[in-house]
Amino acid sequence: MSPVIPIRQENSAGCQSPEVVQERGQREVFCGLTGIIWLHRKIQDAFFLVVGSRTCAHLIQSAAGVMIFAEPRFGTAIIDERDLAGLADANEELDRVVTELLERRPDIKLLFLVGSCPSEVIKLDLSRAAYRLNTQFGSSVNVLNYSGSGIETTFTQGEDACLAAIVPTLPAKKSEGKKLLVVGTLADVVEDQFRNLFNKMGIVDVDFFPPRRSTEMPSVGPGTEFLLAQPFLADTARELEALGAKHLPAPFPLGAMGTSAWLEQAAKSFGVSDNTFAATIEAPKKRALHALAKHRVELNGKKIFFFPDSQLEIPLARFLHTELGMQLSEVGTPYLHRRHLEAELQQIPASTRIVEGQDVDEQLDRCRAAAPDLVVCGLGLANPLEAEGFTTKWAIELVFTPIQGFEQAGDLAGLFSRPLIRRLKLVA
Length: 428
Prior knowledge:
- The protein has helices at 36-42, 54-64, 81-84, 90-104, 117-121, 126-137, 157-166, 188-201, 234-242, 255-269, 274-299, 313-324, 338-345, 360-370, 379-387, 397-400, 409-427, and strands at 4-7, 20-24, 46-52, 74-78, 110-115, 142-147, 179-183, 206-209, 224-228, 246-247, 303-306, 327-333, 353-358, 374-377, 392-394.
- The protein has 428 residues and is of the alpha/beta class.
- The strands form 3 sheets. Strands 1-2-13-12-11-14-15 form a 7-stranded mixed beta sheet, with helices on both faces. Strands 4-3-5-6 form a 4-stranded parallel beta sheet, with helices on both faces. A 4-stranded parallel beta sheet has the order 8-7-9-10, with helices on both faces.
- It is globular.
- Mean pLDDT is 90; it is low at 1-15.
């Protein structure tokens, strides 16, 4: 049996937060390579070259649903038996693949060499490879590297590793004034909505990271204040703070109340008046509350159980409990950054069991005992749980779907109400 370690919360604000229990056992998560699926869509002139096995290639292609005639902005440099046996020089092979890629795709301006379990097993130094390739191609393309290995990580940490690799290359902020930086990959439509709201408040010097093109990287330095749009960016935040940027602690922009509180932190820091802030969010917040009302009818009082998967679990639990009235049976999360999630934790009932890490067999037993109305879990657990009669929601869908902001609040709630409605129709 794996150790179960209770961790008592430090509550600087004086409110009682739930106790967090750590589990260290068998886990059920995707690897960090999966983050490429949304990153390659966001940074439109970047290419992600996975240095890995055929299994890595199949994972990425399956997750992205790539058709045979598509020309995506990612690929795999296959490590085969000759590489593993040391019969071929992996660095020479990698240089050849990159050269051929850049000759065929001159539109690539930012190239990521993405490490995997196989590349780490053979100790292939991708940081040195990136330096070497930058020397060769630096005038036309910037080459960076990060690890997407699934060893001791969960899949959203792929984005964190990617953005953390970019931060040291960001231009230094030259002006002395304050600027706002929103950190975390957002759908373009959500980015446009947030930019519009900030501009209406009078916050016009605002950038989003990552940007849509590598040539539009934001400058960072003292005077930069950043909001996290995703809860899984601990390393990226640390790199930004090392450059002098200041983190604005806030709940994450999920739901009407979460989005309001997130925007309010920026408004307070940039001196926006209460009246201006209230007028700016009045209409979109009203639309969000109206959209949530019909889903609250379906979800109010229902019990939900979260298996650890994406690190979105704590903000989602807060949203479902405070805005839709759901009861939290258990909230599991792969990793919990307490400083970034403090505002979320204080809105979750102190009686809620929160588990950091996983022992999947133990957690399955607790799930069966709790008999929740809805289970949020990874693909590997969903079908077996459905066969046992549970109603499930695929956790990965919550990462691939635009869920942040006022206009997406109803869509986010619908991701949880639809499985319950479907179950009722099936048993009717």
